[in-house]
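Q: Given only this backbone (264 positions), what sequence would you predict?
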């Protein structure tokens, strides 16, 4: 197939119109148009559709980057053969993202390594694709950032970031006991986001155990009650997926050690 060249005048015109990326596919589209005797209006629609798709992909990429989502944790990459149990019907409901429209929450609870973070982030990716603003952050890092922000007078700005997004994903919630300041921050986040935005929490502990991690039991009861009253509970159980990687890793390490004369 002979690819048609695009003239310098056309290239300059497209660049001035900020349509320079059209040149990525324009030569192939010109060939296709000639082969199919495509009407001018259809050809123009094809070129513009290419540009819309490129811009939407670029926007999605920026949204995912701002959300701090792991690009490898999408629903398409979830291994459904993983020996982990959870309510599939409930997860299908969560995938619909109706909870975001209703400003509902999710508690993803289970032991270490069953994929809690993976499924939470997969929901985050789906939300980004639907045009929602998302932020994923580990709970201890968030609290550390807020504590530092108090010292450099950026606390309000940091809190605004947590409150402004449509979906906030808090990973590893309730692992450590929180001091009075941290308890107050969690209280602020859960109360301010109540009925205004959604939160997905992943935790090794169920909501009934979170109370003991707060320094202030009154604020704890208020925050947890607001969250749980509007939250789905996705309970996961099974063996750690990390353990499935261990034999292969062990074999490679063992082979390397044997070759180096470190094992008999």
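A: Predicted residues:
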């Amino acid at each position: 197939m002979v690819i048609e060249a695009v003239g310098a005048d056309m290239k300059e015109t497209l660049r001035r119109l900020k349509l320079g990326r059209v040149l990525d596919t324009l030569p192939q589209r010109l060939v296709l148009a000639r082969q199919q005797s495509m009407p001018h209006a259809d050809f123009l629609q094809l070129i513009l559709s290419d540009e819309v798709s490129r811009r939407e992909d670029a926007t999605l990429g920026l949204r995912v980057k701002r959300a701090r989502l792991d690009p490898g944790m999408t629903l398409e990459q979830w291994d459904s053969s993983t020996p982990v149990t959870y309510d599939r019907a409930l997860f299908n409901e969560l995938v619909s993202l109706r909870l975001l429209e209703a400003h509902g929450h999710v508690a993803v609870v289970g032991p270490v390594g069953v994929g809690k973070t993976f499924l939470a982030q997969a929901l985050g990716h789906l939300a980004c694709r639907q045009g929602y603003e998302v932020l994923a952050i580990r709970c201890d890092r968030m609290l550390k950032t807020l504590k530092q922000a108090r010292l450099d007078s950026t606390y309000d700005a940091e809190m605004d970031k947590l409150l402004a997004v449509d979906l906030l994903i808090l990973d590893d919630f309730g692992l450590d006991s929180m001091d009075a300041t941290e308890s107050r921050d969690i209280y602020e986040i859960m109360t301010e986001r109540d009925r205004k935005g959604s939160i997905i929490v992943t935790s090794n502990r169920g909501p009934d155990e979170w109370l003991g991690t707060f320094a202030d039991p009154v604020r704890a009861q208020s925050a947890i009650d607001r969250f749980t009253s509007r939250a789905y509970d996705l309970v996961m159980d099974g063996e750690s997926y990390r353990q499935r990687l261990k034999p292969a890793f062990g074999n490679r390490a063992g082979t390397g050690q044997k070759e180096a004369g470190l094992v008999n």
